[in-house]
Predict the structure.
Amino acid sequence: MQALRAIAILAVVLNHLWPTRLTGGYIGVDVFFVISGFLITSHLVRDATSSGRIALASFYARRVRRLLPAALLVLLVSAVGTLLVLPYPRWTRGGAEIMASAGYVENWFLAAMSVDYSALNDQATVAQHYWSLSVEEQFYLVWPLLLLATWWWAAKKAWRPRLVAAITLGVVVTLGIAISMLATAGMPSQAYFVTYTRAWEFGIGGLLSLVTFRRLPRLAANVLAIIGFVVIAVSAVAFGPETPFPGAYALLPVLGAGAVIAAGTVTQRLWHSRLTSLRPVQWLGDVSYSLYLWHWPLIVLVPSALASTMTTMMKVGILGVAFVLAWLTYRLVERPGQRWRLVAVSNRRTFLAMLAGMATVIVAGGALMLAGNLRVAADVPPISVTIQECVGPQAMPQSVSCDDRFAPAAETVMGPRNSYFHVPAECVARPDLLPFGDKTATVECDFSGGVEDPTTVWLVGDSHAQQWQGTVFDLARQNHWSVMTSFGGGCPVIDVPFVGFRKAAPGADQQRCRDWSTAVRAAVVESKPDFVLTSSAGRVQLVDDGSGRPQDVQFSDGLVRTWTEWADAGITVIPLGGVPFNGEVRSPDCVVVNAGNPGACAVPRSEAQPSDPYLVAAAQSASPAIRAFDADPYFCDSDACYAVIGGVSVYYDADHLNLDYVRRLAPPLAQAMGVAG
């Protein structure tokens, strides 16, 4: 069993450190779930068989002493590390997840956040990996109760308890697999975390504990074990971030782990024993729990602590430190915690210690969250920015002589004052107008200052249109415009059926985008504003008009049809394009960890600036009312695209622009629109 634990933890850790190498290493978590189901059910059934009852209080107390001391210790250290090392905008989310992890509901927290499109760009916290521990604790809470009820029912009917338990568990597993497949297909982001898509994996392990394999021939056991190990290895290598998971694909690593466990229940020594019984393998299995706890906070904290992007040597160092911390925690916390006389003498003391420990961590997480909120509340964007030569995008024109176009940024930590989604006081949400499903998507802003018949401007698209609203609002304030914005998360305003963002979306999400896009297109024609500005993450958005033509062709044609309809209605259309990739080509933390040397974050333009469908579509259009704003010259030169320009950080997060930088693009945008800037 320890060897299987060793393989599982090694797969997870290597996947987290080298995600592009061992792309499916996350299946190690599923292997752990099968192991837990097997061991816990074995313990419970052994107790029930020997005494005819399951001592729930003692069972839960043993679980508490086994798991919580190390888990709570790492959460406390992680809270302190977040406060000392990570930028303050990450304190609030980090504190919230530490609290959720202390209460073992982190998986549900992440599932809820995955519904929020803006959360897709959130950076990982130190406690994110506690989602799997939360699922496991929820299993520990429910399964003993179900098994106890099964045992009681069998005794009442004079039926064989093990058989009734196996049938019950078989039904749970069958239903669980079906539900997991449906949820993975219909809501993949949430399905990865929620308990009901993973419970059947524990059930597989539980079923194995209820079936006797001791009569399995030695040859068959050897072959079964080898097949199990191979299936786990193939899953770890062949799966990747695009694999629909858990769903049907989870059957492979789960059944592989089940095969190894089943083979291991025979009494004879197996072929693989010579390797799996080696002391290093057994040691890795022993410390696997503590290693899982420590490796992820180190991955999150170390690059910021060392002010450096992740390198191979740093990854190796993190791995080494994680091994040391895991061994120390196993020796000094895990094992002693199970026998600590102060709490082990009674279940009551154990539970009181549990509540005290959880409360301590929750208070620490709450304090971290409060500190983040207080810092955020004091950090608001200025009413206006002063356009200066050689500052921000004004440093890029070759006609300007600057001492250092790519000098270090004065501000590298991106807080609320840099948030592209900031909405000024002149704006009012309009939930009644062009909603995006059940979410408010539209905001009306009056910058007219009482001017009669002001110029009307619409800004529509997804968050890649939203990132431009800062400069649009500045121009609106200067020119007394009336502005309407409508943004659908991950959704373009386009006359072609939307399929997905980066990958095919569930049917309901596709339909929501299509309905909103159709409504926006019609509303623009009906309202006839003077200008429509539009953009989206078109490079990674998928559409399908049924023609089988290349994606970029379908996308560009759909944009041209949309814009032509608007232009024919007498509207000037300004497509916004030319913003280079960020998170796809560099670490989102690159500027923070290379604050003194932002040139390290420069990326060849061939990588950062692929063809932009908005600029392509604008070039294809024959209408003079369609005039694209190509922002490329303000981000890239002939060789590279930059993350810091003119002493200003270019990006807010992995996908969006820094509000301060984009507001400094008001003069060239005004020129493209033909208005005062």
